[in-house]
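Forum > Structural Biology > Help requests

Title: Can anyone predict the 3D structure of Helicase SKI2W?

Hi all, first post here. I have the sequence for Helicase SKI2W but no way to get a structure on my laptop. I'd be grateful if someone could post the structure tokens.
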Amino acid sequence: MDRINVPPAGPTDLPLALLEMGCSGRFELITHPSPDQPLPPQSTLPHGLPPTSLSLEREVEKQFLRDAAWLPIHDTDFAFQKFLKVTQREVNVDSLINCTPSALHSGISVVRDPTTGMLLDFTEVLLENTGLSAKNSLSLQRQPGPPSESLRGSNTNYPFRPGGMEELTLDQIKKRSDLEEDIDFENDLLRVPPGLKAGMDFTDKDAKIAKAEVNLMSLLSSLDDITDLQPVAEEKEEGKDNEDAPKLPRTNSLEDLGVKDVVSSSTPSERGKDEKPKPKENPEENKKWAVPVNINSPCDDFYKRIPNPAFKWPFELDVFQKQAVLRLEARESVFVAAHTSAGKTVVAEYAIALSQKHMTRTIYTSPIKALSNQKFRDFKTTFGDVGLLTGDVQLSPESSCLIMTTEILRSMLYNGSEVIRDLEWVIFDEVHYINDAERGVVWEEVLIMLPDHVSIILLSATVPNAVEFSEWIGRIKKKHIYVISTMKRPVPLEHYLYTGNSTKTQKEMFLLLDPTGNFLTKGYYAAVDAKKERTSKHAQSFGAKSTSHNTTASQDRSVWLTLLHFLSQRQQTPVVAFTFSRTRCDDNARSLDSMDMTTSIEKAEIHSFFQKSLSRLRGGDRQLPQILVMRDLLKRGIAVHHSGILPILKEVIEMLFSRGLVKVLFATETFAMGVNMPARTVVFDSIRKHDGTGFRNLLPGEYIQMAGRAGRRGLDATGTVIILCKAGVHEMADLHVMMLGKPTTLQSQFRLTYTMILNLLRVEALRVTDMMRRSFSENHRDTQAQEKRIRQLKQMVSSLPALDTEGQLSDMLPYYHTVTELRTTTEALQRAILESVNGLKALSVGRVVLVNNKQHLNALGVILQVSSAAVNRTFTALVICEKGNEEEEGNANNNNAFPHLYNTALFIPEGPCSHTVQKLTLQDVSAITVKTLKVIPDRIIDNYSKRQQPRFRLDPPGQAISTATQELLRLAEANPSGMATLDPVNDLQLKSVGVVEDSMRVRVLQGSLREFNCIHSPTFAEQFARVEERMKVQEELDRLLFQVSDQSLSLLPEYHQRIKVLQSLQYVDSGGAVQLKGRVACQISCHELLLTELLFENVLSPLAPEESAALLSCLVFTQKTQVEPHITSTLQEGINRVLSVAKRIGELQRECGIPQTAEEFVGQFKFGLTEVVYCWARGMPFAEIAQLTDVQEGTVVRCIQRLDEVLKEVRQAARIVGDSVLGSKMEKASLAIRRDIVFTASLYTH
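Reply #1:
Sure, ran it for you. Structure tokens for Helicase SKI2W below:
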């Protein structure tokens, strides 16, 4: 290649030169003060710069005419074969072996004079971490991937290391190297490499085994006692550790590795904290991660502490907002819990402004797409540099603030997106959505997967357990979370009951809950009376109390007309009427045909806005029935908002509502969930809703969320909430719970999904069990405290004296285990007896029982009193004892050996018989005998307690006591070897399986106890005490070790079941490595198993693009429909194949132990929209499609939009498998459905 000649520098050229540094492609710019100095050489390389531009002709000639390597060998065309002979093709096998060059391990850097900046010299700099890439490392030091993958990442990338998941500690590495030393290079070699079916055979078949040569290792091991060799061995260990050192990038020197007891800590500063002298409890161990912030203390020095804030508002901030801003300035994470419209957005805005100031990025996630679109519009007007990422839209993704749904953030984290590097804040809006059964798990996954450098802002409605939730996040992320929660409403609410239904009664509105939160029963009874007056005399006389919940349409209409009349007179509009059924919304709006609530100026404004917004639609789509109906309603100031409304119409309605042009909006609950559109009045059509399983009253959290839409900040002094009493007044208790009950606590909805398992399995360093252990559902585990206790217990075990298990005492441990089992079984039996009616009858006054406790051994007693406590019932009893053993502290040295378990001989006093009156617990009563005595309890107790006073200490016992004592003594002497006791099964008639088994087991155990030898040993008691002490510590240790281990995770069994499913479908191999099918499933976000199986079984290949789109609609459509679709035979065949695949997967899951039945699994897929989608993909206009089904237009649109996302995923998956035909087919299908009204861009994003 020729070198290009550059003309010499002329007088007009700037004296600049480029100097190329080494081979890594870096350049330095060199400036020269005067033009007469010659330019220095242009490279530090010996041969100068490589040529910069190539002659194309030569390249073509060289590649295609001189070198025939590009020609295929296997073409059978005759002329082609002839051509091959002409061009002498040299076979070059080495060209097939391709090895990427290893990364350069050094670069060249310039040494400059610090004052003048002149070049002095070049030095070579060693580069660290050059081999790291997105495919092999979790580190942020790795090289960025290709720009095309920078936004969404790629499913072969590793994620970045999640914050709070530590790298390997020293101890773990040491453990590994200890294991490594035990390899026996003759016997223990593995034969089959992981992933292969066959392997090596190391057995020496023909050669006779020669006499073993001197084995150096064995010599060394026999010479262990020679001291000179010790250092060598140590050095060897250090060397091993050093080989493992790359896993621990923080220690760069051998000294660190040698230190055995370094407290492994995640940051050097923590290490410093740990090494403080520890006179008292180590503060590091039991610190709290969640820090509640007191929002009552005013923030006076706010402007002093933040002299030039990143963002200024036109209004003065509330205290809670100031506290949050201060925390953000300190780069801390916060959890803000406040009512709707209290101004949580301020916190988000400040974070975005901060990140723009710091030139980092912020991600704002919301649970609902509509909310994302609105926030995009709001933030775009405020900040300008804002992007939006939802399933189907991608606007300016390079912006510093990105708004997206949580699912997209999750896939970005799993796929190692480059955006995460620059991320400073992630804002989670509406965090109480984590309670959503379907999608709650996504929030937890994202929180667990976020790297360490990202701070977290959580915004939520008021929740009772904000601190507990924040404590969990703080613990898994190892950072403090500041909890700021305020119960204050900027606009207080008044809650009314409304009973009016005609012009005469239109003023019947009764205040039930005033702004200060007092529940007024007076108002409730007034409403009941008002309602009563109107029920017919007939109903009153017959006492028909139970009014039905349902009312007829005409009754509804009169109530609404009356109410709206009343409200518009009192200037209480705009009104949001929450109705928990879509058809009810539509009917109510339609029934108000006589109502007109707008002025002519407003009508004109509504008309022009409506026309302008719909101008983007095609002509036919503008005439859709739903649009025409809504246009007429809107002109009169009435509108409807629910999931069945077309998305573009919903946006028009929201915008008109926020301008105050919609006076009455009939909406379902979703309107309150995200859309921030306050009104003056909120009306509840009913307080019962259907939640998918049945009807129930609204929960306090739902009620507060919806009622909170009343009252516009800065416009209304109070907000009005009205509950309609159409059929009858609701129960007072229900209303009270709903208005003043605690909102729903945040609860974990964490569950295992196949996508999650596969995404974590493909990265070696992340384990699914780590994810489960960090989930909110395992929040009760306090591992730090438990591990500290484990260390203490281990020390205790090692410091206990050794057990003497020689000779007679050899069966001491089995004896201990038998006794323990006997004790627990007996206690279980006793509990069963006490909980049964017959048992309590037997344990009544006068019953003779056998007493065993620290003081008594097999002593007889008689019950005098039974306490009435239900839980820990006690029995006052008179028990016979030796003289001098009346006090409770009697000889308690022998208490641990449980002699009564094998010795049934009754206690008979050696000297004169004395007695004591004691309270016995259930544990003290070891048996209930068949005998009862006639006693006079009151007298015995009075006499005994009188004789406890010092003055009467020496009086003789009263008559009642003496008689009872003599009777007990007589019984004991009559049956010295034990008395007949009541058998729980035969006598007390307890026939439950547990009791029968226990009583049989007790008999067996009691029999086996007599056969032990250790009980005859003279030192038995003291040895037994030792065994017991040691075993107690050991048992607690075992229990804690179990709790800390993965075995105690509640989801572990399900994890094993799911892995079994994945293995039998060959998504992972037996070693847990993700296979091709697993790779494909990682791409797919919903129903990943079914879709992957369909791909691999080629179910989609015989279908046309529009048919495959129609078939896949079963994955996104979830409603029931009454209309049977008419479809082509190929489609019907496809449906049958989908169902059979689904059935197979369902049955496999069932076999592997997952509780879902195959029918339930298959039932998820609904084919009601196949015909609709098929026709739409073939180009039928929307108006005709709407006629084909009873599903509402909005739902159809949403399904087709979600279907487009599925088609994209299938296209990606087909690319991975290498099925380009399917990929292009999916692209065609996607293009066919992306048209007209279904894919009109949102009004918010333009």
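Confidence is low (pLDDT under 50) at residues 207-212, 224-285, 540-547, 889-897. The CA atoms of residues 843 and 917 lie 17 Å apart.
Shout if anything looks off.
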